[in-house]
Amino acid sequence: MKKRDAKTIFASVGDPFRFGSFARSQREPRDAFRMRVEPSEELDLSVVVPFFNPGNRLRPQIGETIEILRGLDISFEVIAVCDGSTDGSGESIVDMDTDVLRVIHLGKNSGKGEALRVGLQLGKGRYLGFIDADGDIPPKVLVPFVALMSLYEPDIILGSKRHPMSDVTYPFLRHVYSITYQLLVRLLFNLNIRDTQTGIKLVRRQVLEAALPMMVESGYCFDLELFVVAKSLGFVRFFEAPVTIKERFASTISPRAVVGMLVDTVRIFFRLKVQRRYRKGSKPAAILPPE
Questions:
Q1: Are strands 76-82 and 101-105 parallel, antiparallel or unpaired?
Q2: Which CATH number fits domain 3-275: 3.90.550.10, 1.10.10.10, 3.30.70.80, 3.30.70.260?
Q3: Domain boundaries in the chain?
Q4: Residue 18 confidence (pLDDT)
Q5: Predicted local distance difference test score (pLDDT) of residue 291
Q6: Rounded to whole angstroms, how far apart are CA atoms 184 and 182?
Q7: Is 190 left (phi over 0), alpha (psi -120 to 50) or beta?
């Protein structure tokens, strides 16, 4: 993106110095993990869209994502990863924009984190990111993300429901769950982040190369583990960006899902503080190829 255009868009984002950490990385990794493909000097961004049975929401989400990115004067690709969907949604997009869209099919449902791991490993971009497939987060949100990417080149840009410019409508109980969980995250990991779980992020390639082989989460705590591992490796330039979320927050969170998130969060803490797994020189986790 041209810097002149990025500055214009940035006016709608707010000041990242106020709403995120802008400390410089403490150190760069010596032995970066080799992802499955070499980055392309001509490709600015890879966006992964993991999905499991999204129904008829998938095709419009993919189409709008491609349309938005084409208007941003960057080179890009979209990698849609079917996490064992059984509703035919994967077949609904195979004929779309094959010049910029790749569709990857996993043999079985393995969790959002595993779908992201596969898609991110296949990305060719200088930055790699992801957005949810169900349409809750409209692809137009990517516009300020790309502006921040072009102007500041941070380690991670994260969507935050608590950014002052976010437009989010969701029930009081969901709000309580979210705030309580983020307070727990700050207590356990000392992360200067107000929202680790919103389903849109962009990550600098060097951060993923260093962090991804140490990560093991296959579910919704993939996002939290990414921040924890990145910070442990010295990557701390995390920028918050506003999001718009309105459509499906009326849905409830089951007690089982809440307990599962808490258990996975404690496991990450155990790996970090007891096993000390998230350090340079630690044995990387095995990353399986897609089936």
A1: parallel
A2: 3.90.550.10
A3: 3-275
A4: 44
A5: 38
A6: 5
A7: left
Residue 252: phi, psi to the nearest 5? -95, 160
In the block, residue with structure tokens 């499955």: 36
User: Of 167, 227, 173, nearest to 197 (Cα)?
Assistant: 227
Contacts of 98 (CB under 8 A, 6+ apart): none
Alpha carbon distance, N-terminus to C-terminus of the chain: 36
Helix (H) or strand (E) holding 240: strand 238-242
Give dist(CA 44, CA 57) in Å, integer. 26
- Which residue, chain included where needed, has tokens 């849109």? 200
Residue 128 makes CB contacts below 8 A (sequence gap 6+) with: 45, 46, 47, 48, 120, 202, 203, 205, 208
The pLDDT of residue 174: 78
C-alpha closest to that of 169 among 240, 251, 272: 251
Residue type, 213: P
Residue 254: its pLDDT value, please? 74
pTM for the whole thing?
0.84
Judge contact between 40 and 124, C-beta under 8 A: yes
Which stretches of the chain score pLDDT less than 70?
1-41, 247-253, 281-291
